[in-house]
Structure to design on (593 residues):
C-alpha cells in the first residue's frame, strides 16, 4: 500500500470523521487517481498563506486541515511567548508583545463555502490551547482583519479566504501583530510547527459554549466596523472636492458577491458621494459567484453587469472588488465614450500620481516618502516617483513584503511609507492596514475621478496624459493553470529549463540582464559581471532586454499556476502594444505554451 492509500485508509476509518467528508471518501474508493490527488501531500503555505480545494483529504481545505494549521499556530505563539524561538529571526514580533500573559488572535472570514465554519473551528482550536479568539460575527474584508489585529493589539490574525480563486477553493492566511502577513522567517517557523502535528484527525477543540463561558471566544461588535470606516474615510486627500462633486459624480460599484458591500457603502456615504449605484445582482454574498465566471476584478468579464448598469445610469466610474475586498479594479470611459477596464498597473500609476500631486500641492510631500511596488509591477510608477524626487523600492511578489517594508521604515525612522501597490490590483494608501486594501482604493479612486471631472477630464484622459509625459508603458500576464502532481512537476521542469538554458534573445532583442532570485544573483550579460540581489530567495527569474523590456517567470504561491509577466515601453500606444504582442508570442514559444 502506497503513502496515499495509507492516508486514505486512516481517514476513512477514523472514528467520528465528519459525515460529509466520509461520504466524499466513500465515493472515490475505486478512483486511485483521485485518492492520490487528495492525499499525496499536505497543503502548505505560499506567498498568500494556505489555499486549496474544499473537500476530504490532506491536500484539501476541511475542518481537519484548519485544525492542524491552527494548532501549529498555537504552538508557534506559545513558543514565542516563552522565548523558545529566536526573536532575531522575526520581523513580525515586537519585544513588548513577547511578555504578554495572555495570547489573543483575531479571526475573520469572507463569503466562501464553509468560511464561517472554518473560522469557528480555528477559534475553538485556539481556545482549547488557552488562546483567546476575537471572531468577527459576519463576513469581513481582509484589510479590516489587518486593521483589527493592530487596533486590538492582538498577537496574530487569521483570515479565512481564497481571495479571487474559483468557488471550489478556500484558504487560510496568518497575520503577525503588526497586521502584516507573516514574513518568510516567521512563516517557516510556523510551517515547522504545523509539520510537527502528526495526526490532524485527533486534534481536540473546545465546545463553543465552553469557549464563550471561559472568555476564550469573544465575538466582535460593530465598534471595530465603525473604527475601520472612520479610519479609511480619514485618508481622503481632498474632501472639499468630494463636497463639490459628490452630488453629480456617478459611481457604479460591484462587490462581486463578496465582503465589500457594507464597508464600501459606508465609506463612500461618509465621504460625501451621493450618486452610488450598486450592481444589485452581485450585492448578496454568494459562495458560488453565480453571475461571473471568475470573481476577479482582473478579469474583464467580471464587469459585464456593472457596465450594463453604468450605461443605464450614465456613470462616470465603475469599481469592483474581489470576494475578500483586498483587490480593486476600475472601469473608465475612454475618448469614444466606451467603458474600458484598466489594468492594475494603470490604476496604480493614476493613484500614485494623484497622491503625489495632492500632497505636493498641500506641502505634505517629504523627501523621505517612499513608494513600494513588486518586481512584477510596471516601471511607470518608478518613473513617476522619480519625477517628484522620491525613491521606489521593489519587493518580491506578495503584499506581505510591502507590509514588511512598512515595519522596517518605522523601526529605522529613515523613511515614510507613501503608497504601495502591485500589478494584481492591490493598493495601500494608509499604513494602519498592512495588507492591500480595496476599500481604501475605492475611496481614493472615486475622489480622484471627481477631481479630474472637476477639471473637465476623465480618468482615461488623465492616463493618456501620464503616458504622454512619462512614456507609453504596457504590461501583460500569461497565467497557465497546471493542476495536481503532474502540473507541479511541469512547473518545476519549466523553471529548471529556463535556468539551465536561458534565452539569449526574445522577440529579436538581446537579453541584457538575468536576475535569478533563487540564487539571489543579478548577472549583467553585456558587461559580464554579477552582483547580489538584496531580496529573500524565491523561485523567480527575470530577464531584462536591451530595450528595457522585461519578462518575469514564477510559480504562483497560492494557485497551481505558472505566471509569466511582461513589461514594455514604446513611443506610442500602438508601438507599445506591438512590442507587447511580439514578446508574448516569443515567450509562449520559449516555454512551449
Amino acid at each position: 500500500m502506497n503513502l496515499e492509500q495509507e492516508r486514505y485508509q486512516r481517514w476513512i476509518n477514523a472514528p467520528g470523521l465528519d459525515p460529509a467528508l466520509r461520504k466524499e471518501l466513500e465515493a472515490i474508493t475505486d478512483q486511485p487517481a483521485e485518492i492520490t490527488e487528495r492525499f499525496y501531500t499536505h497543503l502548505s503555505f505560499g506567498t498568500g498563506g494556505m489555499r486549496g480545494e474544499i473537500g476530504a483529504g490532506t491536500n484539501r481545505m476541511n475542518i481537519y486541515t484548519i485544525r492542524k494549521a491552527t494548532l501549529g499556530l498555537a504552538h508557534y505563539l506559545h513558543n514565542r511567548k516563552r522565548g523558545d524561538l529566536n526573536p532575531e529571526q522575526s520581523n513580525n514580533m515586537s519585544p513588548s508583545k513577547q511578555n504578554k500573559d495572555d495570547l489573543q488572535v483575531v479571526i475573520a472570514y469572507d463569503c466562501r463555502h464553509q468560511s464561517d465554519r472554518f473560522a469557528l473551528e480555528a477559534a475553538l482550536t485556539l481556545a482549547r490551547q488557552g488562546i483567546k479568539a476575537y471572531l468577527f460575527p459576519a463576513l469581513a474584508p481582509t484589510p479590516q482583519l489587518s486593521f483589527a489585529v493592530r487596533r486590538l493589539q492582538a498577537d496574530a490574525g487569521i483570515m479565512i479566504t481564497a481571495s479571487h480563486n474559483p468557488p471550489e477553493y478556500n484558504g487560510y492566511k496568518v497575520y503577525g501583530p503588526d497586521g502584516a502577513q507573516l514574513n518568510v522567517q516567521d512563516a517557516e517557523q510556523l510551517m515547522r510547527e504545523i509539520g510537527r502535528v502528526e495526526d490532524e484527525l485527533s486534534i481536540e477543540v473546545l465546545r463553543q459554549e465552553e469557549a464563550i463561558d471561559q472568555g476564550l471566544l469573544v465575538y466582535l461588535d460593530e465598534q471595530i466596523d465603525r473604527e475601520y470606516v472612520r479610519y479609511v474615510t480619514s485618508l481622503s486627500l481632498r474632501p472639499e472636492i468630494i463636497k463639490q462633486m459628490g452630488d453629480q459624480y456617478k459611481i457604479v460599484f460591484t462587490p462581486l458577491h463578496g465582503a465589500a458591500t457594507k464597508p464600501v457603502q459606508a465609506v463612500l456615504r461618509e465621504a460625501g458621494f451621493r450618486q452610488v449605484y450598486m450592481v444589485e445582482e452581485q450585492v448578496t454574498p454568494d459562495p458560488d459567484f453565480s453571475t461571473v465566471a471568475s470573481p476577479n476584478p482582473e478579469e474583464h468579464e467580471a464587469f459585464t453587469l456593472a457596465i450594463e448598469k453604468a450605461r443605464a445610469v450614465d456613470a462616470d466610474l465603475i469599481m469592483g472588488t474581489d470576494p475578500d475586498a483586498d483587490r480593486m479594479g476600475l472601469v473608465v470611459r475612454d475618448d469614444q465614450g466606451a467603458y474600458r477596464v484598466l489594468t492594475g498597473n494603470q490604476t496604480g500609476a493614476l493613484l500614485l500620481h494623484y497622491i503625489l500631486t495632492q500632497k505636493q500641492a498641500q506641502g505634505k510631500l517629504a523627501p523621505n516618502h517612499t513608494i513600494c511596488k513588486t518586481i512584477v509591477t510596471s516601471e511607470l510608477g518608478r518613473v513617476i516617483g522619480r519625477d517628484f524626487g522620491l525613491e521606489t523600492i521593489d519587493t518580491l511578489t506578495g503584499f506581505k513584503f510591502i507590509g514588511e517594508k512598512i515595519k522596517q521604515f518605522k523601526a529605522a525612522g529613515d523613511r515614510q511609507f507613501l503608497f504601495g501597490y502591485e500589478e494584481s490590483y492591490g493598493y495601500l494608501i494608509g499604513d494602519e492596514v498592512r495588507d492591500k486594501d480595496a476599500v481604501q482604493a475605492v475611496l481614493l479612486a472615486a475622489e480622484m475621478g471627481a477631481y479630474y471631472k472637476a477639471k473637465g477630464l476623465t480618468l482615461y484622459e488623465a492616463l493618456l496624459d501620464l503616458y504622454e509625459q512619462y512614456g507609453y508603458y504596457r504590461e501583460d500576464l500569461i497565467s497557465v493553470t497546471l493542476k495536481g502532481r503532474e502540473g507541479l512537476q511541469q512547473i518545476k521542469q519549466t523553471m529548471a529549463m529556463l535556468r539551465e538554458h536561458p534565452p539569449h534573445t526574445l522577440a529579436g532583442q538581446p537579453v541584457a540582464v538575468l536576475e535569478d532570485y533563487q540564487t539571489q544573483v543579478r548577472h549583467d550579460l553585456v558587461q559580464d559581471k554579477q552582483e547580489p540581489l538584496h531580496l529573500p530567495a524565491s523561485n523567480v527569474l527575470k530577464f531584462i532586454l536591451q530595450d528595457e523590456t522585461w519578462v518575469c517567470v514564477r510559480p504562483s504561491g497560492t494557485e497551481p499556476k505558472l505566471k509569466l509577466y511582461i513589461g514594455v515601453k514604446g513611443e506610442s500606444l500602438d508601438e507599445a502594444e506591438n512590442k507587447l504582442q511580439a514578446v508574448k508570442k516569443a515567450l509562449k514559444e520559449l516555454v512551449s505554451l
In short: The chain has a mean pLDDT of 94. The chain has four domains: 1-34, 41-221, 227-470, 473-590. The chain is about 40% helix and 20% strand.
